[in-house]
Structures are given as C-alpha cells and as structure tokens.
Amino acid sequence: MNQNASNELAPVARQATAREFLSVIFRRKWLIIGIFVVTTITVLAVALTTPTVFSSTAHVLIRRGEQQNLLTGYRSVVNDWEADLASEIEVAKSHPVIERTRELLKEQAKGAPVRVNPRQLDAEVKGKSNVLALSYQDGDPAVAQQVCDAFSRAYIDYRQNSMTLNYPKAFFDREIAKVKADLEMWTERRRQFGLKNAVVSVPEQTRMLFDLQNQLERRRSDLTTELAQSEATVNAMQQLRDQPESDLPTLGVENVAGSIFVLRQKLLDQQARVALIRERYRDDSPEVVNATETVRTLQDMLKREVNSRVDLAQAKIQSLRAGLAVVDHDLAGNRVQLAGMPAKEIALEQMDREIGVLKERYRTLSEDSDKARVTEKVTPTINVVLLAPAGSAVSKTTRDWIRIVLAPAFSLVVGIGLAFFLDGLDVTVRTSGQAEDAIELPVLAALNDRRRSSR
Prior knowledge:
This protein is of the alpha+beta class. The protein contains twelve helices and seven strands. Strands 1, 4, 5, 6 and 7 form a five-stranded antiparallel β-sheet that branches. Helix 3 (29-49) packs antiparallel against helix 11, helix 7 (169-197) runs antiparallel to helix 10 (286-378) and helix 9 runs antiparallel to helix 10 (286-378). The chain is rod-shaped, with a radius of gyration of 67 Å.
C-alpha cells in the first residue's frame, strides 16, 4: 500500500504546449525579427550592389605535338593529354600573350586603348577534347567581346610565331659568315706560308729533293773521279816536262795528247839518230851539230807542248774543283731543305686539316640551311586553329530571386532555433510547468496576470 502511495506522489513528465512555444517566440521576438531583418537587408544589398558582368568566349582547336627541328618534318606527340592542355592554358594566360593582346588593342583603338585586366582573362578545356575556350569578363559587353577577340588573336599569333620553329636566318647567316671568314684566313695563311717557304706539295717536293740529292751525289762522284784523273795526268805531264827522256806512266795513250806523243817519239828517234851520227862523225861535224840542234828543237817543242797541256789540265782541275764546290753547296742546301721538310709538312698538314674541317662545316651549314628552307616551305606549321571567334558577350551575374527569398526564410528558422536555445539557457520560472519541474510538486492553481487599469 505504501508502494501505491509513493507511485501516486511521483511527478508525471509534462509536455510543452503550443502556448508555451508561442510565449517563447513572443519573448524572443526582437531577436528573431533582428536576424530576419539583417539577413534580408544583407541579401538585398549584395544582390542589388553586385555589378553585372558580361563574358565573351572564343574557341581554339589545338593540334597536339611539337616539331622537333627544321631539318625534319617529324612532330612528336606527348601522350599526357591533361599535361599538354594544362600547359596550353598557362601559355594562353602568360605575360607575352597579355602584352600582345594590349598591342593589338592599341593598334585597333581609335581613341584611348582599352585596358586589359589579366585577372579577368580565363582559359579552359572544353570537356575531353583539344578545344580551348578563351574568355574575358567585363562590365561592358562590347569591351568584353573586343578584348576576347584580341586575346584569341594574340594567343594564336604567339603560338604560331613565337613557339613554332621558323627558319633561323640570322643563325645560319652568322655561322656561315664566320666559317667563311675563318676559311679565307686559313687559306691565306697557307698561301703565305707556301710563298715564304717555297712549298706547294710537300710529298712531291720531298721526292724531287731526294732525286736531286741522288743526282748531285752522282755528279759529285763523277767530278771527284774526273778531278783525280786530271790531277794524275798533270803530275805525269809535269814529270814528262822535267824529264823528257823518262818513260810515260801507265795512264794509257788516250790520256796523253797525240801531239805530245808524236813529239816525244820524234825526239827519241832523233836522239837515237844523234847517237848513230856521233859514232860516225866528230861532235863538231855539221851532221852532229845539226842533229843535236834538232834534238834541242824537239825538246823545246815538247816542253812547250807539255807546258800548254799542263796549263790546260790545271785550268780543268780548277774548273772541276769549282764545280765540285758548287755541287757540295747544292748538296748542303738540299740537305737543309730535306731536314726542314718534316716541320713544313706538319705545318701544312695542320693548315690543310683546319681548311678541310672548315670546308666540311661550310658545306654542312649550307646543306642544312637549304634543307631548313625546304622543310619550312613544305611542312605545315599551323598547330592552332580558330574554331569560333569571340562571340557576343553574355551576362554572367544574373539575380536569382528564389535564393534571395529563401535566405530570409532560412533566417527565420535560424532565429527561432536561436531563441529556443537562449530560452533554454534561462533558468527563470515563468510557467506552472517550470514551477512543477523546479519544486517537483504539482501545481494546484494558477492566477493569470492582470493589468491594472489606469485611471
């Protein structure tokens, strides 16, 4: 029985009534109204003060792949599609393209040129394609279209002229002129070296010098032999001159003049005749005297002939010695020239090697220049194509009235929720339910508030 009594005395949980909800709302009405008003004013201010922005767009098709060089028409294609087009987006928004856009606007501006804001330029890829959308946003639709058109043309111009390989005329002209000047310098240096050292073809001249040396050595040998024979002949003739009665040395009859041999033979015959006459006559007889006088005459003739022959032989010896000296001089000069040929050959080989390298380089540069010209003319270099020019600008900031209306409505919900949250934090007892919860006893009666009438 006590258990039943305790159950009857236990408090029963109450549920909040609609009146209590309304009372909370009325108590926090200024908070709710304030949030609603502030939100509504803010949304309207933002919507009404946001300027209208117009955007114009141009579409460009990008041919992927880059030409490696002007000597071949081969174009390498990178398989990374995203990397390729991401790079193109950065190229489109790069500083050179923006500067070129400003230049084009200055060229076509009649008055003050249109100012370009790089932050309002944009480029994006159209889906999974190679099409690039170039756009520009501005408050004036005419300006947006004008800048977008200049932007697309600047990008195409930069892509075609600055990033596309063209014939490098300055490079080839500079390199060919440099090689030509070096070739002329080395050719002139070789010519001056050849004139100074009297060389044209070292192997041929070396062979000729060896041939000349052999000839000079043979000539010297002949002159030495002839000189020895002439000296021997002179010695024999001097002995014959000093001793007419002596026998000639064994030089051979051909080495002695025929007249000397005849005179000597006659002298010997006459001496033999004088010896026979002396046997028959006295020394003072006319026959002996005449025969003796004839011997003396023959001796004088033989002596004069020998003297003349000795003089001639000595003159020949002097000539042979002079010739031998000339040959020795020529041999010494020839040996000097032969000794200097290796150094000259090395110097000429170095010059010829430099000239050969320069000629080959000149030929290669000329061929590469012609090949680059031909490749440039026959290889298409267009890698970007304008698909659609800058179109009419369209508004990008339209007012969404639905969102403008929903924002204050959501602010009411937030305000009511905040009101109940703050009311829950308030511990003031205002209702019978709060009183029952506070003292844990049932409320028996409640008196309503009465306003006193003013008199």
